[in-house]
Amino acid sequence: EAGASVLLLRACLALLASPIYLLSFLGMWEPFCRKVFFPFILDKISVVHDKKSKKHKQELFRNLPDFRGPSGELKLLEIGTGSGSNFQFYPPACKVTCTDINPNFQQSLSRNMKKNQHLHYERFLVAAGEDLRQVPSGSVDAVVCTLVLCSVHSVSSTLREVLRVLRPGGAFYFLEHVAAEHSSWKYFWQQVCYPTWKLVFAGCCLTRELWKNLEEAKFSELKIQHISVALPWMPIEPHIVGYGVK
């Protein structure tokens, strides 16, 4: 019953988005999405998301200074920096290395860097979460990743890289949207939107149960909280937030 309704509604949604499917078939959507559409739309969505998640982020990043290295410095690596909406939450004099697979956020990124001059920006690397080979093993005190694990190709390889670049005793901070409870309407709509959403939003997967990946990764200590961040008309309300220690 539910399966048939999901397929029918998926087809309706695909029909509505047929110009995008056509562009994708012709190989024109992906480059346009990466350069123009995704940076633009993400900028708009993150304004709303930042407002809704601000107190969760303040709470999450409050203990960042506890993970300073032996030298007293805090070296932080952010995976999928995007436009840099997390900078405001990092402690003063924190040394930040930004990475993103998509280098097309420069405008909003430099705007956020100017706004947050309490940080030292070390470098910007164009890199996927699964491949941080430009970052030496055990070289950072903290890794941050928000709304990124939904669209990496492999969550487990990304978490392996996180653990590799962290020094022992370092921490991985996350805030991610996840699959809803399977028996809920929210999950039904996530399934309906899944294929079209993934195409439109640069590979973003709606139904990942990321808490399972985090529990399987080799963290010595893991704090996960399930929260809800309500965004109007968007199937991404259920979130997890927390941190893991190497």
Automatic annotation (TrEMBL):
Entries under InterPro entries matching the protein: Methyltransf_11, SAM-dependent_MTases_sf, Thiol_S-MT
Transmembrane segments: 7-29
Keyword Membrane found: yes
Domain Methyltransferase type: from-to ranges: 77-174
Assigned keywords, A-Z: Membrane, Transmembrane, Transmembrane helix
SUPFAM superfamilies: S-adenosyl-L-methionine-dependent methyltransferases
GO molecular-function terms, A-Z: S-adenosylmethionine-dependent methyltransferase activity
Pfam families for this protein: Methyltransf_11
Protein name: MET7A protein
Gene behind the chain: Mettl7a
